[in-house]
């Protein structure tokens, strides 16, 4: 691994993290609503959707998950598999009963929830520290989502605040890419 690239990624993560810490709960709430309104029409045509459980510094897409589960869509969340130190996808049917605290404090489906093949999703909503306009993704640095997305089918859609969508970010061949990036103010199809 290129140490200059690693340092560049680390520096960008720190810079973005500092900006995320400055976002008030009120701004997060408003921008989360705007993002959900922007995403909802995109989700209508998808039959199977892999969501993510948002962390405190991420936009809150949970209301969309609740709405689409209630509407009968096939919705899933990543679930940590300790044996392989990776994530699988498990379907959620009843959010109140199916969600448990998971690895790294992230909510995930209980082991009783049915596992769904990663290749069978129509749409995958992807968190990230930053994305660029060519679809590159900068994650939190452990590679879990890179490995999950490498095995996943369907359209991959990054979800971030507008300031997290950059012209270019440091990327390596193993870093996952997305097809689209949605922010509260715009939707961008990656440039080729």
Characterize this entry briefly.
With 192 residues, the protein is an alpha/beta fold. It contains 5 helices and 13 strands. The protein has one domain (3-189): NagB/RpiA/CoA transferase-like (Rossmann fold, 3-Layer(aba) Sandwich), CATH 3.40.50.
Percent of residues in helices = 25-40%
Q: Reading side by side through the largest sheet, how are the strands ordered?
A: 6-3-2-1-7-10-12-13
**Quaternary:** single chain
Average pLDDT across residues? 92
Global morphology:
globular
Contiguous low-pLDDT stretches (5 residues minimum) are: none
Distance between the termini: 25 Å
State the CATH topology: Rossmann fold
CATH class annotation: Alpha Beta
CATH architecture: 3-Layer(aba) Sandwich
Task: Count the E strands.
Answer: 13
Q: At the fourth CATH level, what is the homologous superfamily?
A: NagB/RpiA/CoA transferase-like
Task: Find the structural class using helix and strand composition.
Answer: alpha/beta
């Amino acid at each position: 691994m290129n140490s200059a690239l690693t340092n560049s990624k680390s520096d960008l993560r720190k810079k973005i993290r500092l900006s995320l810490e400055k976002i008030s709960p009120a701004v997060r709430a408003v921008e989360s609503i705007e993002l959900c309104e922007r995403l909802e029409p995109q989700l209508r045509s998808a039959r199977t959707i892999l969501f993510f459980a948002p962390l405190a510094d991420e936009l809150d897409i949970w209301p969309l998950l609740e709405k689409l589960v209630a509407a009968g869509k096939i919705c899933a969340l990543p679930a940590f598999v300790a044996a392989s130190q990776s994530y699988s996808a498990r379907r959620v049917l009843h959010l109140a009963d199916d969600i448990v605290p998971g690895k790294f404090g992230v909510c995930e489906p209980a082991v009783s929830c049915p596992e769904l093949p990663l290749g069978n999703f129509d749409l995958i909503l992807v968190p990230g520290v930053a994305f660029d306009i060519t679809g590159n993704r900068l994650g939190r640095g452990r590679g879990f989502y890179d490995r999950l997305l490498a095995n996943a089918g369907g359209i991959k859609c990054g979800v971030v605040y507008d300031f997290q969508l950059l012209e270019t970010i440091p990327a390596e061949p193993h870093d996952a890419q997305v097809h689209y990036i949605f922010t509260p103010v715009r939707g961008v199809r990656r440039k080729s």
